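Quick start: load a record and inspect it. Here is GNAT family N-acetyltransferase:
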Amino acid sequence: MNRDAVLAAYDRQMRRNAAPEGPGARVEQVGGVVRQCGANADWSGWTGVLWSDLDEATAGPAIAAQISYFTAGGREFEWKLYAHDRPGDLAGRLQAAGFSPGDDETLMIAEASELSADAELPRGVRLREVTDPADVRLVTDVHEKAFGTDDPQLRARLRTQLAECPGSLAAVVVMAGEEPVCAARLELPPERSFAGLWGGGTVPGWRGRGLYRALVAYRVGVAVRRGYRYVQVDASSDSRPILQRLGFVPLSTTTPYTYRPRVRSFSGSASCR
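Running the structure step on this input writes:
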């Protein structure tokens, strides 16, 4: 893999010319910044900066402009920073402006056709495709048990996506009897080369049995059948070694920087235009 060329293609397709995350979300380019507003009047869903091309002279004004824009109604937002973004001190500038960094993740990419699509599961469990919006609860039940958080916005977005844009999403659950024990999804943005692996999680008590690897393989098979050249994942420190053994290549790191306004009095008047 030509890492520089693939990273440049990823930045161009998935960040600079990003497709909206789901139904109702909007992406707009303003100067050297690409940002997304979540769906609906309250911007539910992911909201923040996807890409920027700044320098020492433009970084400060751009950061101030995004803070002003997103927080006009008391809305918090995220600046998704990659290690190769410019200028080199952008992380420090964001912190100085009041952003708080989250955990680092590793951007990992693989040629989909070069990965194994065999999904071997232990005896007594089965894969179940989630195609009915009502069954999204299976995915979010696993998410809550695996990560300890309930995310009603994710639940609403996945239901809407399956109902309105089913071709853009493939969700799958491992079932032990009637209990969901592992779940993940594959985002399939139209007219792009990269399919995204997201949300892979296994409930305690079922970890270490190959379920996560099986769902990676299953989703890779879907991506290949749908004509995607690459599969991409933002890997945690736990999943990175598994993905490297499967053939994924680390290309950069990404860190979420979150800005939380001091006064939260959202009026519902601000919107992406």
